[in-house]
């Protein structure tokens, strides 16, 4: 049975993010996967990476549990709203603390950052201004997590989706994404 970890990167836990998460979760569970969900905003940790090379910050209990959940999963899905072309600081800090090699993957802590054999998906949910800019120039908003975190730690493939603001959950655009998320979940991708 495949283990799926859903990371809710919505600092406001909005209805639209939960709408997409629930669709993905429904699809994954229908395919027989075990799904675990973590809301990053609920975790207690210092999101600031320490820059003093002589001192490596120990992981707080919530980050230790998160790292364990990542290790136990075969597929990680991040749902992350992007506001005016940036990812919220606590969400970025979560990835800085867990995935940056000089932060926790030092030899004295005996932690392995090789997550090969795991796949990932990043679902970027853009606010209206960022979505207009994205439609104009297709500038991606997930690279600060995709490359330095997931791909550098050997997760492959790392699939991505960019979704515009879901103003209403019952319009055609939202329903289209509901169907897609459930399908991705059922395919465990």
Which terms summarize this structure?
189 residues, alpha/beta
Question: Could you describe the 3D structure shown?
Answer:
The chain is of the alpha/beta class and 189 residues long. Helices cover 41% and strands 18% of the residues.
Strand content: 15-25%
Fraction in helix: 40-55%
Q: Which runs of at least 5 residues are low in confidence (pLDDT < 50)? A: 103-108
* Rg: 16 Å
Instruction: Report the average pLDDT across residues.
Output: 84
Largest sheet, strands/sense/barrel: 5 strands, parallel
- Tell me the number of strands: 5
SSE run: EHEHEHHEHHEH
The strand line-up of the biggest sheet is 2-1-3-4-5
- End-to-end Cα distance: 14 Å
| Count of alpha/pi helices | 7
Note the quaternary state here.
Answer: single chain
What structural class do you assign from the helix and strand content?
alpha/beta
- What form results from the Cα inertia axes? globular
Topology:
Blueprint (H helix, E strand, L loop, with lengths): L2 E6 L6 H16 L3 E6 L21 H12 L2 E8 L6 H11 L1 H4 L14 E8 L1 H10 L5 H9 L6 E6 L8 H15 L3
Parallel strand pairs: 1-2, 1-3, 3-4, 4-5
